[in-house]
Amino acid sequence: MDGVLTNYGTAVGVPNSVNVILLGSGECLLDNIEVLKDGLNVVSNGTFEAGLGDWTGQGNHSRIEIAENGDGKALKLTSSARGDPGPYRLRGRLTASLTLGRTATLRAQRGGLEENGSCSFASPATTWRPMAT
Questions:
Q1: Which of 26, 45, 64, 132 is the most exposed place for a label (fewest CB within 10 A)?
Q2: Which pLDDT score, from 0 to 100, does residue 18 have?
């Protein structure tokens, strides 16, 4: 999936993380998560080859583990209920904050295992919308 992050600047603070939220109970594999700022990927450990470092599962999204996906490692996220941008999310660290009012690109691979196939990606102070195909 590819998408564009549009920063509105009305939230508290500046975007310095990426959130993954399942929109219902279920599980999915995540890999190759990127947030491109000025063409450079600013997601720390978005390939999960270094394990779970820089990723934190919170609330009903706290069950995270490393799984093999055929190309290497991926993150397996399991949630018992719908997440939200507050206490129920998977949070990954960005190596540089996004600039409010600018555009960044979000890319990620998601696959397999899901009972509820819907997940949402965002960053604090941003919204995400899919790019037109």
A1: 132
A2: 87
